[in-house]
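Exam revision sheet. Question 4 asks you to relate a sequence to its structure. Input first:
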Amino acid sequence: MKIIIAPDSFKGSMTAQEAADAMEEGVRKALPDAEIIKVPMADGGEGTVQSLVDATGGQIITAPVTNPLGVEAEAAYGILGDGTSAVIEMAAASGIQFVNSETKNPLITTTYGTGQLITDALDRGVTEIIVGLGGSATNDGGAGMAQALGVHLLDAAGRELPFGGAALADLASVDCSGIDPRLKDVRIRLASDVTNPLTGVRGASAVFGPQKGATPHMVEQLDRALSHYAQIIHDQLGRDVQTVPGAGAAGGLGAGFLAFTDAVMQPGVAIVVEATRLKDKAVGADICITGEGGIDYQTQYGKTPMGTAQAVKEVSPDCMVVAIAGSVGEGIDQLYGLGIDAIFGILPGACTLQEALVCAKTNVSRTTENIIRLIAGRQ
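Answer key, structure tokens:
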């Protein structure tokens, strides 16, 4: 029997690799001779770097960066097993974890560090860069990232703009003559399920700004600044980034990539499915075990278990796909018929959150064992 094990991380308790290992343990107890293929998964959010590095036999790279507040820090990204692809979570250099309730300020935070990670990856000779958009502390439209890559954003007096989204209101000209020429030869893929435009009531500032410390007045200020930024980009570079779905991801970083590179935006789980070669590995599979920390009706909208199920069913229509989760929410009946055949919670009974996290590996292993015993016993 061929079994594919392809979970996402269980947030707060296990990486995707650790979850896969726990699932394998359960399978082996029930079916020792099974052919097992483990494929740690992700959907472009937190944990994507580690999952892809684990799945491809890659390595973690650490590099010096400028964090969102302009302070020196270190951030990690991954080089995949092929040696030519890099995977970067923008949050590693520009994420919300670098600020607190007193220091978060989207008027001044920058994505400069994300650009520095891209430069470091280019220095290592990569030909493809996957960038996970999410978890940002920024609202600068990717301006800082662009500056780190050699773009000059100038005010009316020809001075370089300071960091932050508010400064974009003073943008008068864009000089791309110094942009890193290696970007032309690199494929950049943006992993994001956010479809928000750059500006407006569904834009980066209005929807995500308050999470980053923006007051209602700041939201209006930032939205006007990003709108002006988009207009300058349109007038001087000929690229329309204001209304493109996904341009508002990560405080408008999506727009920055679309303006200054030839990046393409794709659903995160689709990128991971391709990078891990999940479909190739799933040909002829009898069972697929997937899962993550929580599963509910939202899982159908680009989350790992759904993307995994659909990819596996595409190449092995008769494969039984079972998802397990730390918590099972409302609306899971909507997932049946979309690729997932059954869903199981892992908790054996009432417990505290801390107890659930501590016992997660044991609970995943036990639940997987019982699932396999049930399925194998009916084969």
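Marking note for examiners. Residues 48-268 form a domain with the Glycerate kinase, domain 2 fold (CATH 3.90.1510.10).
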